[in-house]
Amino acid sequence: MDIRAIDWNEAWKRQQSGVFDDGWNRAYWDKRAPHFAMSREGGPYVERFIELVNPEPQWRVLDVGCGSGTLAVPLASRVREITALDISSVMLDSLRVRCEQHEIDNVAPVRASWTDDWQSLALEPHDVVIASRSLVVSDLRQAIEKLNRFALRRVCISTPAGEGPLDPAMFRAIGRRRRFGADYIYVYNLLYQMGLQANLHFITYRENKSYRDKDSVFTALRCRIGELLPQEEKTLREYIDSAFSCRDGRWRRIVPRTVKWAVMWWDRP
């Protein structure tokens, strides 16, 4: 089959259906916000993503799905101003606290979702629009068109390659059959169909987060699973005992997982 004949937006919709249904609502992200605040350190992904964006001092940046400021905070010192968009007011509250702590005054938080009318919120086009690990959308074509409308110079997005940050072994351990969502190839092929010749780069690193204690590990993993049945909770704790160990007073994976993200960016005409 000629892949140019495939409707990649419809393929994306089918693959995403039933996978990230919770991700469309504010309550889900409000609940996850404390975990984001705890794991907000930079790390290899943030450093490499910012290198690829290659920010310039005069830029105005629109950060879509900013979370608690994973990119907005380190970017703030390198650009003129940032508009930080997120669906969760709790995420934005955490971002405001971080900006106060770092004496950052050029980040403007705005609560909005992918489906909101951004123009009605008085948002204007920015030099660069980024959507880092935040393409939790049902209609991918519509989202990309929206990013393009609000970008004067460049759009930069990222999405998982393969399972991304999710751990298949963890889901198998608790007895859940996890169907993973559409990865980068759906996005890249749709960009091609839309006439957007995107650059592609992979950010690969060994995830080796450390945790204060086993309860902290449990909280972090449960955040990625959702509600657990009593038996699942017991099995998850057993999985932690087998996959994590305490070294130098911190809990880490015995064998760090390899995580891979695809970063795609293109310049506006």
Structure summary:
This protein has 269 residues and is of the alpha/beta class.
Top keywords for this entry?
269 residues; alpha/beta; seven-stranded mixed β-sheet; two-stranded antiparallel ribbon; 10 helices; 9 strands; 23% strand
How would you portray this structure in words?
By secondary structure, the chain is an alpha/beta fold. 38% of the residues lie in helices and 23% in strands. It has ten helices and nine strands. The strands form two sheets. The protein has a seven-stranded mixed β-sheet, sandwiched between helices. The chain is globular and about 55 Å long. It starts with 7 loop residues before the first helix and ends with a strand. The model has no long low-confidence stretch (mean pLDDT 89).
Please describe the topology of this protein.
Elements (H helix, E strand, L loop, with lengths): L7 H9 L9 H13 L4 H11 L6 E5 L7 H4 L5 E6 L2 H13 L5 E5 L14 E7 L7 H10 L1 E10 L7 H6 L10 H10 L5 E9 L6 H12 L4 H14 E4 L2 E4 L3 E11 L2
Parallel strand pairs: 1-2, 1-4, 2-3, 4-5
Antiparallel strand pairs: 5-9, 6-9, 7-8
Helix pairs in contact: 1-8, 2-5, 9-10
Measured as a percent range, the helix fraction is 25-40%
Counted by DSSP, the helix tally is 10
- Widest sheet: strand ordering: 3-2-1-4-5-9-6
What percentage of amino acids are in beta strands?
A: 15-25%
Could you spell the SSE succession in H and E letters?
HHHEHEHEEHEHHEHHEEE
| Mean pLDDT over the full residue set | 89
